[in-house]
Amino acid sequence: MGGTTAALTAENVRKRYGRADALAGIDLTVPEGTVCGLLGPNGAGKTTAVRIFATLLRADAGRVTVAGHDVAADAARVRRCVGLAGQTPAVDEILDGRENLVMWGRLHHLTPAAARRRADELLDRFGLAEAGRKRVARYSGGMRRRLDLAASFVRAPRVLFLDEPTTGLDPRNRNEVWAAIRDLVAGGTTVLLTTQYLEEADRLAGQIVVLDRGRVIADDSPARLKSAVGGDRVEVVLCDPSDLAAATGVVARTTGAAPDVDAGELRVSAPVRDRIAALTAVLSGLADADVRVADAALRRPTLDEVFLRLTGHQAAEAA
């Protein structure tokens, strides 16, 4: 899951609102230079955890360190090491992109000259140099989000907290933000990402942590979490549904597993080590049985299936 030094550690962190536990004792370790995807249903405690990690909220119990500093005992030093981008871009639409970044630089106590230099560096890094003199009111959603990320990098944080950074963006703008995050991580930044989009976590994160009811119920790489759901699957779609009985028998004999059948589509678990051989054998057996195939593929389980298995409902329903 990445580096050997921890950028963030949480030990038995608890937070209670009235009689409800927002966090019921979570433990978490995020290595330096990696992306950790923090997933969970609404109300699972994701935003509460991020606010505690970013020193915006005090935990009732437990200990958190970020970049080697205790968030409770040394909050000021932690704030100098972190960046935070919330769900809504914190940019001023009246100003242009460069003026926004200069303003953030001045708020971080940079000199006027240093703030201007940093603004130019960040505009170039986030692909906004040509739009730097354009008012933010004329920016697309993806440009605003990239500008917001750039603002969180005025002080080059070692750890960046992103709370649902692409909510509401179209696929093109989402890809732009993903590219910006990858560039930041390649430069050594550690990212803790909360997201409603499991594809986003799958694309970006090397570590997935699932929260439910204030507790960590899974913490592993995306690949290992998917393997726990049941491994790869062979999927076959028939041209003629009347061939279903014959095809079911072929697939069962070939793979040694009874397939799931759904409206002319066969699904069967395939051994991970023999996935290509399993698909080849199934297609050969179907051809010998004169069963015509419209489509066939190997498919790995998705994070949505992992989420469903762990929490009892799909991520879209949770969101």
Biggest pleated-sheet summary: 6 strands, mixed
Mean pLDDT figure? 87
- Helix fraction by DSSP (H/I, runs of at least 4): 25-40%
How many structural domains does the protein architecture include?
2
How does the helix and strand content classify structurally?
A: alpha/beta
Count of DSSP E strands?
Answer: 14
The CATH architecture category of the largest domain equals 3-Layer(aba) Sandwich
List the total number of helices. 12
**Going by CATH, what is the homologous superfamily of the largest domain?**
P-loop containing nucleotide triphosphate hydrolases
Low-confidence stretches: none
Strand content: 25-35%
CATH class of the largest domain: Alpha Beta
Radius of gyration equals: 24 Å
Distance between the termini: 27 Å
H and E order: EEEHEEHEHHHEHEHEEHEHEEHEHH
According to CATH, the fold-level topology of the largest domain is Rossmann fold
What order do the strands of the largest sheet run in, or round the barrel if closed? Answer: 6-7-8-3-9-10
